[in-house]
Structure formats: structure tokens, C-alpha cells
């Protein structure tokens, strides 16, 4: 067994950096609805999610096996390829975080790995069947299945709780939201932490440290779980705002339905070894739950931007990874250039994010950039036929109903005060 070289150490560290960005990028998947409905305080929510992400990392290695020995052919893959793949994935994660879009960290990693592999050994190095059956099909199916399940669960929840008084219902659903959010966090650790375990294991195999087909060593499992937990604790507040307030307005019943449905889909896929995007599952569940309440709507303009980001994730990360792989092929100086480029890009994105800070203190505030956004045809139509709730007439509204009757023309006497009706 060979010792870990400097290049291999750089790859491992870069993989853990990706795992860290995966953590804060995907915190919204577990905690956005819980925070937006007030079921938990923001800092408490992300702390709980971080702990459960760490626990989930130890529950299974099926997804890690898909990444390390299924997606691409290990023969001929060098550590430089893994490094280039991680560069593409990290930069896409940070760019989408900057604009507050919940894109898939999983697909960023897959796209980077496929792009770097093609640039290195050609398209023959990619197992197309695995990409289709365990990446692309779940990418399309996950949001649909989770969305339909969440919509039905929300309707069932409202129907079952129709005879429960509001105070008791809110207390019960608050507890249910906390439990389901914990389940999503556990599922996220089970699914997403394994992807970094798989990529590190693949790098160790490429570097000759492990034999092909090996399971992730214990130190890889511990380091990957710790990195994603730390990232989760920091909280991706920009994406939490989009998931919690930008897609739809959720009540506790809907939040409970969305999180339970998403957790069921994610855990089932983890056991089957599908490299499922937790972002796709949770976003689909949130939209489904939004439509599950009578009169509930989805902000389709925000959803459309999110769908566009999903479609661009694989090719964008793949192109950056392919370009990075081309540079790293030039030798040690090429690796150094790509490393400097990655660090400089990360620093630039962070500095830009400081211009408008989003954190736990303002995560539930309305995004002023979206206030003037058109509601969309579907939202407007539903709002037009939805009657206002009882007692909605305010003092301002009653003032608008007053009409002034002027005095008859031609009177010379001092006019009496205008009457109102």
C-alpha cells in the first residue's frame, strides 16, 4: 500500500471543502420550513440538523459505493481528475448559494466527475447506464414523487385536523415538524455525506492507496460526516429564505407534510443506492405542500428560476471541471494554477455576499428584490376567486366606503357638515 502523496492530500482536503459547502448549501432542505413557520428558532434548528447529519453519515455506505465504483470506470482515473471534478462542483455550489437558488450539490458533483473524466480519458470512462438509472431518472422522478406525496399528505392533514382547535393543532404540528425535520436531516447525512465518502474513496483508489471496490475507511466516514455537519451548522441562510418564503407560504400543517414526504423519498433512495438529490426532493415537497392547502399557491417565477438552475447544474459543473482537468494535465504547475483559481473564486464570491448579508436574524424577512415580482397567471387567477376571510374589513377599508353628499347647489346659508353613508 502506497503512502498518501501531496496531490492526493490536496484532493482529500478539497473533497472535504466540497462536503462543507454541501452542508450549508443544503441546510434549507431540512430546516427551511421549520424556520419559516416558527416551529424552531433558526440557530437551534441548524444545530439540530448538524448533529443529525453527522449521525446519518454512519448509517449506510450504499450511495458511496455508487460514486466510488459505479459512476465512472476506475481504470486510468488519476487524482487530478477527482480534483478537477471537485473544483467544478464547489464553484457551482457557491454561485447558486450566492443568488439563493436551491440547486443540487449531488448533481454538481456528478457533473464535475463526468466532465473531468471525459476530458481525461474520453466518454468511454463514464458508465452511461449508471448515470441514467441512478442519477438522471431519480433527478426527474424525485421532485414529482415527493411533490405529489406532499400535496396528498397536506390535504389529508387538513382534513384530519379540521375538528381540532387551532391552538392544539399548532402545538401538535409544531412537534411533528421538529420530528420530521430531524428525519430529513438524518436522511441528508445518510445520502449526501456518502457522496463525499465515495469521492475520497475513489481518489484513494486512483492514487493506489486502496484496491478497487473498497468500502470507505473509517477515517473517511468520520471526516466526511464532520465536514457536512460543520457546514450545516453555519446555515445556508440565503437558500433557507428562498425555500421557506420564496416558493410558497407554508402553515405548520404543510411544513409537516412536506418534510415527512421528502424524508421518506430520500431514505428509500439511500437504501436502494440511488444518488438522489435531496434538494430536488425537498423543493418538490415544498411546492406540493403549497398546493395541498385550499387557496395555497406556488410562486412559479421563483420555481422557474430554480428549474433553470437544476437544468444547468450538470453541464455547468462539467464544463468547469473539464477545463480544470485540461489545465491540471500540464503538470504540477497546472494543479497549482487551478488551486489558486479555486481559492480566489471562493474569496470573491464570499466578498460579494457581504454586500447584502442574510443570516439567522433576517432569514424570515421578505426578500425586497422579489416584492415587485409579478405573481403569475396561476397565482393571480386563484387569488381573484378566493373570498377574503371573515372579519377582514379593516378601519382603512371602511373609510374607503364613505361617500360625501355635497350641499344642494344654490344655497347661500352656511353649509352643514357633510353627511356620510
TrEMBL record:
<keyword id="KW-0813">Transport</keyword>
<dbReference type="GO" id="GO:0005315">
    <property type="term" value="F:phosphate transmembrane transporter activity"/>
</dbReference>
<feature type="transmembrane region" description="Helical">
    <location>
        <begin position="196"/>
        <end position="213"/>
    </location>
</feature>
<keyword id="KW-1133">Transmembrane helix</keyword>
<feature type="transmembrane region" description="Helical">
    <location>
        <begin position="6"/>
        <end position="24"/>
    </location>
</feature>
<feature type="transmembrane region" description="Helical">
    <location>
        <begin position="307"/>
        <end position="327"/>
    </location>
</feature>
<feature type="transmembrane region" description="Helical">
    <location>
        <begin position="45"/>
        <end position="61"/>
    </location>
</feature>
<protein>
    <recommendedName>
        <fullName>Phosphate transporter</fullName>
    </recommendedName>
</protein>
<dbReference type="GO" id="GO:0016020">
    <property type="term" value="C:membrane"/>
</dbReference>
<feature type="transmembrane region" description="Helical">
    <location>
        <begin position="108"/>
        <end position="130"/>
    </location>
</feature>
<dbReference type="GO" id="GO:0035435">
    <property type="term" value="P:phosphate ion transmembrane transport"/>
</dbReference>
<dbReference type="InterPro" id="IPR001204">
    <property type="entry name" value="Phos_transporter"/>
</dbReference>
<keyword id="KW-0812">Transmembrane</keyword>
<feature type="transmembrane region" description="Helical">
    <location>
        <begin position="333"/>
        <end position="352"/>
    </location>
</feature>
<dbReference type="Pfam" id="PF01384">
    <property type="entry name" value="PHO4"/>
</dbReference>
<feature type="transmembrane region" description="Helical">
    <location>
        <begin position="81"/>
        <end position="101"/>
    </location>
</feature>
<feature type="transmembrane region" description="Helical">
    <location>
        <begin position="219"/>
        <end position="240"/>
    </location>
</feature>
<keyword id="KW-0472">Membrane</keyword>
<keyword id="KW-0592">Phosphate transport</keyword>
<feature type="transmembrane region" description="Helical">
    <location>
        <begin position="136"/>
        <end position="158"/>
    </location>
</feature>
<comment type="similarity">
    <text>Belongs to the inorganic phosphate transporter (PiT) (TC 2.A.20) family.</text>
</comment>
Amino acid at each position: 500500500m502506497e503512502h498518501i502523496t501531496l496531490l492526493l492530500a490536496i484532493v482529500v482536503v478539497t473533497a472535504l471543502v466540497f462536503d462543507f459547502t454541501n452542508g450549508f448549501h443544503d441546510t434549507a432542505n431540512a430546516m427551511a420550513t421549520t424556520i419559516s413557520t416558527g416551529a424552531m428558532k433558526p440557530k437551534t434548528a441548524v444545530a439540530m440538523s448538524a448533529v443529525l447529519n453527522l449521525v446519518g453519515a454512519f448509517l449506510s455506505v450504499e450511495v458511496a459505493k455508487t460514486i466510488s465504483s459505479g459512476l465512472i470506470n476506475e481504470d486510468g482515473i488519476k487524482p487530478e481528475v477527482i480534483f478537477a471534478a471537485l473544483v467544478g462542483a464547489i464553484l457551482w455550489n457557491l454561485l447558486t448559494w450566492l443568488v439563493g437558488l436551491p440547486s443540487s450539490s449531488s448533481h454538481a458533483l456528478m457533473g464535475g466527475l463526468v466532465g473531468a473524466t471525459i476530458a481525461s480519458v474520453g466518454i468511454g470512462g463514464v458508465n452511461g447506464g449508471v448515470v441514467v438509472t441512478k442519477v438522471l431518472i431519480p433527478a426527474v422522478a424525485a421532485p414529482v414523487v415527493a411533490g405529489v406525496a406532499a400535496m396528498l399528505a397536506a390535504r389529508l392533514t387538513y382534513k384530519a385536523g379540521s375538528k381540532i382547535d387551532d391552538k392544539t393543532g399548532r402545538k401538535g404540528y409544531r412537534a411533528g415538524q421538529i420530528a420530521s425535520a430531524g428525519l430529513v436531516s438524518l436522511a441528508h447525512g445518510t445520502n449526501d455525506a456518502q457522496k463525499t465518502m465515495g469521492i475520497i474513496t475513489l481518489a484513494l483508489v486512483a492514487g493506489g492507496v486502496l484496491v478497487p471496490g473498497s468500502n470507505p475507511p473509517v477515517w473517511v466516514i468520520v471526516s466526511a460526516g464532520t465536514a457536512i455537519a460543520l457546514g450545516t451548522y453555519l446555515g445556508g441562510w440565503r437558500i433557507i429564505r428562498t425555500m421557506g418564503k420564496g416558493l410558497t407560504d407554508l402553515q405548520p400543517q404543510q411544513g409537516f407534510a412536506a418534510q415527512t414526504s421528502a424524508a421518506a423519498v430520500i431514505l428509500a433512495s439511500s437504501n436502494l443506492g440511488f444518488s438522489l438529490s435531496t434538494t430536488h426532493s425537498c423543493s418538490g415537497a415544498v411546492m406540493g405542500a403549497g398546493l395541498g392547502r385550499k387557496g395555497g399557491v406556488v410562486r412559479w417565477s421563483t420555481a422557474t428560476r430554480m428549474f433553470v438552475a437544476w437544468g444547468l447544474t450538470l453541464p455547468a459543473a462539467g464544463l468547469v471541471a473539464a477545463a480544470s482537468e485540461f489545465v491540471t494535465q500540464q503538470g504540477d504547475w497546472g494543479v497549482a494554477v487551478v488551486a489558486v483559481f479555486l481559492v480566489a473564486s471562493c474569496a470573491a464570491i464570499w466578498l460579494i455576499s457581504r454586500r447584502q448579508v442574510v443570516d439567522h436574524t433576517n432569514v424570515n424577512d421578505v426578500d425586497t428584490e422579489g416584492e415587485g415580482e409579478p405573481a403569475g397567471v396561476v397565482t393571480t387567477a386563484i387569488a381573484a376567486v378566493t373570498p377574503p376571510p371573515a372579519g377582514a374589513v379593516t378601519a382603512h377599508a371602511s373609510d374607503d366606503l364613505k361617500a360625501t353628499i355635497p350641499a344642494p347647489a344654490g344655497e347661500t346659508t352656511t353649509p352643514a357638515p357633510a353627511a356620510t353613508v
